[in-house]
Amino acid sequence: MDWGLKNRLSNIIKPQDNRALMLAVDHGYFLGPTEKLENPRKVIAPLLKYCDSLMVTRGIQRTSVPATTSTPMVLRVSGGSSIIGEDLSQEDITVSIQDAIRLNASAVAMSIFVGSKYEHQTIVNLGKLVNKAEKYGIPVLAVTAVGKELGKDSRYLSLACRIAAEQGAHIVKTYYCDNFEKVVQSCPVPIIVAGGKKIPERDALQLTYDSIKGGAVGVDMGRNIWQSEHPVAMIKAVRSIVHGNSNVDQAYDLYKQFINEDPKKKQKSSKPNPSKPKKPNPSKK
Ligand code: 5RP
Fold first, then answer.
1. Active site (catalytic) residues
2. For the segment 191-238, what is each residue's pLDDT rounded down to a tens digit?
3. Which residues form the domain of 54?
């Protein structure tokens, strides 16, 4: 592996513990203004210092991430369909490698849709992206996107992850599933787990814990962080599992503790409640 590629990878998967906490905010590329990600700048600002890297599109990076940040960027370079379009799997590469370099990307990311109508196109695109990115020492993260009709089972995910790795992806993002260890064992490159739809906080912490126990290097979590009522508390709790080896109970206790430390909450509770009648102050005459 070339020095540049190794160096960029080490920005994403921390060499101290071989773990990664990626914050995903790239959803708008096909979902538009997703719930609670309507204003990405507001969402990203308080969370940026708690993630190891940010998964982002170039539009959001340029408009909503301060260029002074030291957080590495994982740049999504694929797109071309929308949630209301004909087929979500019809993606192409939409960002040039030159633009990825201009944006100082630590990795480029794209989806492959194994088993879908556009499987061939997306897998060939992955190979081509690896050809271009490796020329400049930029790692490629392949996202094994799952179509509606395809289940998130270990047989399917093993197939998709292995195909991504065979095409030369340096990291593969996939979903957690039963027998997840099998998916990890048959994939020769590091696996990072996507959070998926919003679930209760404790369940999302369990997913994080199980993913790491099952052999993933970490999580690339979006909705379960920024759709939480307490995004900062949530990312800190997830972090305590990824980098602090907390178990689920410990992480959930921390989540509750972080909520209480939230300055917004303190501000709220110190404000007088107009609906409460004022107690008479005996010292005042
Ligand atoms: C969207 C993505 C997301 O980055 C990925 O799904 C992670 O986000 P979430 O935790 O919300 O699922 O690749 O296509």
1. 173
2. 999 999 999 999 999 999 999 999 999 999 999 999 999 999 999 999
3. 3-226
